[in-house]
Amino acid sequence: MAHHDHAHDDHAHDHDHEHHGPEKGIMRWIKTTNHKDLGTLYLFFAFTMFFIGGLMSLVIRAELFHPGLQFVDPEFFNQMTTMHALVMIFGGVMPAWVGLANWMVPMMIGCSDLALPRINNWGFWILPFAFTMLLGTLFMEGGSPAGGWTMYPPLVLQTGNAFPFLIFAVHLMGISSITGAINVAVTILNMRAPGMSLLKMPLFVWTWLITAYLLIAVMPVLAGAVTMLLTDKYFLTSFFTAAGGGDPVMFQHIFWFFGHPEVYILILPAFGIVSTIIPTFARKALFGYDSMVYAVASIAFLSFIVWAHHMFTVGMPLAGELFFMFATMLIAVPTGVKVFNWVATMWKGSMTFESPMLFALAFVFLFTIGGFSGLMLAITPVDFQYHDTYFVVAHFHYVLVPGAVFAILAGVYYWIPKWTGRMYSEKWGKIHFWLSAIFINITFFPQHFAGLAGMQRRVPDYAVQFVDWNVWSTIGAFGFFLAQFIFIINMLACCYGWFGRKQGLPDRVWEGAHGLEWTVPSPAPYHTFEEPPVVSDNELTAAHDSVDALDHHKLS
Amino acid sequence: YTETSGGYNLPTGVTDLSKEVHSLHMLIFWICVAIGTVVFGLMIYSIINHRRSKGHKPADFHESTTVEILWTAAPFLILIGMAIPAAGTLIKMEDTRNADMTVKITGYQWKWEYEYIGEDVKFFSTLAAESNAARQHDGNGLLSGAAWAKTFSKDELEKLKKVDGGNYLVNVDNELVLPVGKKVRFLVTSNDVIHAWWVPEIAVKKDAIPGYVNETWAKINTPGVYRGVCAELCGRDHGFMPIVVRALPEAEYQAWLAKQKGGEAAAAAPAAAAPVEVAAAATTATDAAPAAAPVEVAAAPAAAAPAAPAAAKDLSKDELMKKGEQVYTANCSACHQPTGKGLPPNFPSLVGSKIVKGAAVDHIKQTLNGKGMMPPFKHLSDLDVAAVVTYQRNSWGNSSGVVQPAAVAAAR
Amino acid sequence: MADHATPNPDRYFVPAPSAWPFALTVALVAILGGVSSYLEDKHIGPLPIYAGGALLVYILFRWFRGVALESEGGFYGAQVDRTYRWSMAWFIFSEVMFFGAFFGALYYARHLSLPWLGGEGSKIETNLQLWPGFENAWPTNGPAKLNGDFDTIPAFDVPFVNTLLLLTSGVTLTFAHHALKAGKRTQTILWMWATVALGCAFLFLQAEEYMHAYGDLNLKLASGIYGSTFFMLTGFHGMHVTLGTIMLLVITLRLMSGHFKPDSHFGFEGVAWYWHFVDVVWIGLFIVVYWL
Ligand code: HEA
Ligand code: HEA
Ligand code: CUA
Ligand SMILES: [Cu+2]
Question: What is the atom index within ligand 2 of the atom nearest the CA of A266?
């Protein structure tokens, strides 16, 4: 043990390995290796980004309220759409999922922390820097990137000084996602409590395991793609230039090889959350646990072979178009299995409708609508008409906002009592739900019609016949945005005990809830399972055929 | 783009294939509605009846291999039912063989060029002047009360609704004229970034990829005017590069084509420098389509009128400046801005720039040949180029003298 | 202070709060900001790059040293060991996908875009209208003959020697591993030095080859799609070899200062995995970049 003392110098000098608590002040957050601290940081970061991305979407919607250019220059408009999407996807939804995984995965599988706590800290702290870099480009000469979040060359190569910052910001986000994903995957594979076999894990854990796999597989591909953009612009390579033997469309293939799995990265954890919440409030075991797992795995597999459905109009050979059409349509099968299983879980349950359940139910309705429009887009000859219109915009906002974002909201409502030990206001939760659900449909449903009637995407101004749809859409967007303030106040009140909210909730906050996280106190202690817990059948999502487990799922 | 407003669905269109596409769209839509009705129906039934407040006790089933297989297989079969007709239509759409004629379409930031292969007819098509004037941004920010007032103003909206005869942003100076009943093959490509050529009523959307040529086709059944837009983000003015296809009966089309060639011949003759495009627009508007929106007629002659006498003699600075401003607004201001200040770094400022201050011949050459992202403007007449160069050299505080058409002719 | 740092290998090791990750991010962002400004000709000078680089090296040194000492101090139980195994495996998988993007680009160019430019398949008009006379061939700098004529590096020349060097290094590394498992430390260290030497030799030859390409063959990054794929693939591989060699060196030094036990030496194995990965990528490169 000659080197033991050095260990103290480097890491171990000022604390107790067994019981170190948080440091004080800002340094607590900068240096923390605790999964709950980092989960909180991730969630606050995501929230901030949702807010910024939401403000950008309001700029977009304000300009589109009526035809004519009222507020912003077309170039700035394009910067807004581009940044809106990048901020929402990479800054909002993805960090929110990592935040939820940070908080919940260790508590759900019964381990002390994530597998690599320091890397976890690194993965988080990259994000604020990366987004400072990205958002900073708004103040640069030539403005921020304006080539769309898809960054297609040659257009994106016309970006001004912002260009290298865009590329490096994407690299940094990639590093963050990969480290986060490795961490979660390894935690799940290596650190489950005894008795928590793979096919007994909660579905949120399952979906995150597969999400992590997708992230590790495709984020490096995105990094490769943007690296080629960088060298094409500054080092005269010609990956995407026909004159040198390359092809601009090659970028699109590489990008969407990342991009399509990416959209499932955004939605799979949502499936997990919904599969957790519906059984709780239906007071009935999840229907078809095994098939749920297989469905998620099939979706992940298929997600790698459908990418070119974003590129039906680029002039692919016929065989390619047919293949990608058929493969894309297939995804409806496993996704359908999931939807049917959720409905079957509700069927003959004993349902109550607290805020998490309301958001989960709205998810099932509205995500399915988004899925249907996705299926329509998959039909190549018709996609020629839909492509790059507001029909596509409507499709992906249905799966992203009342899909991914609603599931995040549901998850936060569901677990915030466990995190803070205080209950949110159910009344305001319900008001928030109804305002959100109504306004989101006012925002995005009319966009289907605008798109079908011929309104193309990514324009600051449009022909006069689309005005009615756009008026509705803008009204809805402002309403939805404002409604989120109810949510944030409601949540902060739990965090800080505003309005006299007291701690003192039971361990099992929701009577129908199962899972290890409900066996620890509310709020959960800083270190949860330093010794692996005993996993009783009662806490498993997968009821399998154990009669005992079933009895516990019934309400006495 | 139907000429009427308030559409909410895909147009059925005017080709056999556009009709097929439309029915495919409706078929899939109704299948989704049907599945949705069943799924949502069951869900709503359950939400209403299986709730605790009604005293419903939870059942304890949680698995059934039979139903799982059933609801895996059923959607699968439905999908096969969709895939077969879809594949059939797709195969037809991709079959560009045996075309009667070919038009090459080239995208530029931000206009289209049409070339009738084998006919020696070639011209540019840009956003119509009236729309172009109406769409200018008046520089107000988000915090400006004036902008908000404008946004909520009914009058502003009514004004826009009248622009270009109800075709605000979907009207062009030179239309693509095609015959009905002929299989027209389109070769789509681009000169700079990716664009996409889309006309909903003929169900054609094809990306224009720089360095590659994509093929597609249409056979239009009904004469008429069909409007479309650029459908791939191509930079600042992506929203402002519309497409107008005018389908004419064969005989009228042939007459139009002959005029085009005549125009070309006239342009080649040294004395008459009337630009082809202007002639094209004028003929289209007056001869071929008497019933067309009046604006088109108004826009074209405005540009055409001073053109005819121009080339013969030297022009005064005032004449050149006046003409130059028009040419500038139509061709240059999108990038270099009405203020001449451009949008650096991509679109350089013309105020006191090297080129503008330097030798006239370099200025003319850059205008004709383009540079970097700037497209060539060879297609403009000597007069137009002279006028716009003069305009640039004597506006916004620049004062670098007058350029005559003869100098342009010499520099070509 | 010794009393509260008792290693407890039965319990999963959760490290204390640490400022290294945050500082590492600062260093990284300083470098990237500096490089961005340089690329866009905004003269903020090279200071951020150098300062960031120095900071980066310092932090990595301290961080990894701390990890090594924790490991030697017995803080890591079997479960932590498995964590590192899984993590390294996933990390290498992500690297494979990164290279996959560039291999994919090469495949696309050779089997899709170049034939199309040459007029094959549905893209006959591409050739007729835009690139008349261009014939699909490999190697090529494209229809516009970007950067002029160039020569390529024959596979069975230096690249073949490099293949042999890397393959041999894989063998010497395996010998080192067996020696370590057998508890023969001196042998282990010798085999490790041999491996490091082979890595350095590879890098030396590769650098020579690049100079030859740029100086004599007119083969450059700008030489169309051939130059692009050639230099990006071999270049990123070379960077990985550099990193791998540094890692091997670090392991060798750790072996010399008595680290690792015959039955527990994941630091060693992780680096060995990485080295084999770099090796396999090279085989792929040798076949599709140099040979075919
Ligand atoms: C969370 C994100 C998410 C999700 C889950 C999906 C899900 C799907 N998406 Fe979507 N998509 C996006 C995000 C997402 N998409 C984004 C961001 C874009 C645009 C990117 C850009 O261009 O900027 C896009 C664009 C996009 C396109 C390209 C459109 C174009 O640009 O022309 C296509 C085309 O095929 C498509 C298809 C699908 C399909 C088939 C699904 C399927 O997974 C849906 C499956 C679900 C169902 C079908 C409903 C439930 C099923 C049943 C009830 C069973 C029975 C049903 C039937 C048999 C019909 N999507
Ligand atoms: C996850 C992704 C996401 C989300 C959430 C949104 C949200 C919204 N989007 Fe966006 N959008 C995209 C992804 C997203 N969008 C993408 C990819 C594009 C394509 C860009 C391109 O063309 O390149 C696009 C483009 C796009 C357009 C088309 C622009 C164009 O083509 O010109 C429009 C226009 O209306 C629009 C509007 C909106 C509106 C009104 C919202 C509103 O819903 C915004 C209000 C939302 C909030 C305020 C967030 C609320 C969330 C919370 C409160 C969660 C709390 C969380 C925690 C506690 C952690 N978006
Ligand atoms: Cu051209 Cu969009
Ligand atoms: Cu997709």
Answer: 1
Average pLDDT for C259-277: 91
Within 6 A (CB) of ligand 2 lie: A 43, 46-47, 50, 54, 57, 60-61, 81-82, 84-85, 88-89, 92-93, 96, 148-150, 393, 397, 400-401, 404-405, 408-409, 412, 443, 457-458, 473, 477, 480-481, 484, 487
* DSSP letter assigned to residue A307: G
Q: CB distance C125–B187 less than 8 Å?
A: yes
How much is the pLDDT for A501? Answer: 84
Phi, psi angle pair for A359, to nearest 5°: -65, -35
Cα–Cα distances in angstroms (integers) from residue B107 to residues A78, A358, B82, in the given order: 19, 49, 34
C130 chain-B contacts, CB cut-off 8 A: 189, 211-213
User: B48-81 burial by CB neighbour count: b if 16+ within 10 A, else e?
Assistant: eebbbeeebebeeebbeeebbeebbeebeebbee
Q: How far is CA A297 from the centre of its chain?
A: 18
Is position A176 annotated as part of the catalytic site? yes
Q: Taking the alpha carbons of C254, C257, C258, C259 in that order, is the dihedral positive or negative?
A: negative
E strand or H helix at B217: strand B214-219
Whether A508 is catalytic: no
Q: Which ranges of C136-265 does DSSP label H, i.e. alpha helix?
A: 158-181, 185-212, 224-256
| Interface residue of A126, A247, A252, A256 to substitute, partner C, most C CBs within 10 Å | A247
Looking at residue B369, its pLDDT comes to 77
Number of the ligand 1 atom closest to the C-alpha atom of A403:
1
Element (H, E) at A9: none
A109 and A486 Cβ atoms separated by less than 8 Å: no
For residues A536 and C291, what is the distance between their CA atoms, to the nearest angstrom?
Answer: 59
CA distance B12 to B15: 9
Q: Which domains are present in chain C?
A: 1-76 (1.10.287.70), 77-291 (1.20.120.80)
DSSP state letter for C10 = T
Rounded to an integer, what distance in angstroms lies between the CA atom of residue A519 and that of residue A513?
10
- Our answer on whether the CB atom of A262 is closer than 6 Å to any ligand 1 atom is no
Q: Under DSSP, is residue A21 helix (H, G, I), strand (E, B) or coil?
A: coil
Task: State the pTM of this model.
Answer: 0.90
Whether residue B29 lies within 8 A of chain A, CB to CB, comes out as yes
Residue of B nearest to C128 (CA): B213
Cβ neighbour number for residue A492 with a 10 Å cutoff: 12
Judge whether A548 counts as a catalytic residue.
no
What pLDDT sits at residue B380?
76
Cα-trace Rg, chain B: 27
Which of A36, A310, A418, A422 is an active site residue?
Answer: A310
pLDDT tens, residue by residue, B28-55:
999 999 999 999 999 999 999 998 888 8
What CA–CA distance (Å, rounded) separates B388 from B323? 7
Q: What's the pLDDT band for A543 if we cut at 50, 70, 90?
A: low
Q: Is C125 close to B211, i.e. CB distance below 8 A?
A: no
Query: Quick check: is A309 catalytic?
Result: yes
Q: How far is CA B126 from CA A182, B131, B299, in A?
A: 52, 10, 12
Residue tagged 């007709």 (tokens): B85
Q: What is the pLDDT of residue B67?
A: 87
A408 alpha carbon to ligand 2 midpoint, in Å?
14
Kindly list the domain boundaries of chain A, sorted by start residue.
Answer: 26-199
A390: annotated active-site residue = no
Q: Which two tokens stand for residue C259?
A: 């680290």
Say whether A292 sits in a helix, a strand or coil: helix
**Ligand 1 contacts CB of residue A363 (under 6 A):** no
Count Cα atoms within 13 angstroms, Cβ side, for A448: 15
A221 touches chain C (CB under 8 A): yes
Label the pairing between strands B243-248 and B224-230.
antiparallel
The Cα–Cα gap between A128 and A42 comes to 10
